[in-house]
Amino acid sequence: MGRRTLGCLLAVNAMLLFGIAFTSFIPQPQPALAQNLGRGNYLMIAGDATGRSSQAALYIVNLSNSRVISGFFNASTNRFEFIAARDLTRDLAEAEAQRSRRTR
Hints:
Number of helices: 2
Strand content: 25-35%
Radius of gyration: 25 Å
Distance between the termini: 62 Å
C-alpha cells in the first residue's frame, strides 16, 4: 500500500468520523404525537392520484378491525369524497382461497 493510498484512506476515514460526530450533536426532531382516544388504531396513507390534478388519494385503515376506507381529497372544494369501504380480513381470506384453488 503506497503513501498516497494510505493518505486517501486516512482522509476519508477522518471525514466519516467528522460526519458521525457532527450528526450526533444535532438535536433530533421530536416524534409526532397524536391524541389517542382509545377508539382504534388508525393508519392513513395519502398520495397523488393519477389523472386528477386537484385531488389526492387517501386510504384510512382501522388496524383494530382491519377495515379500510378509500377516497379522494379534493383541494378545490376542500372536501373528502368517499369511494369505498372494504374489510381486509375478508378480502385476504378470499384471495387465499382463490390462490389455493388455482394451485390444485
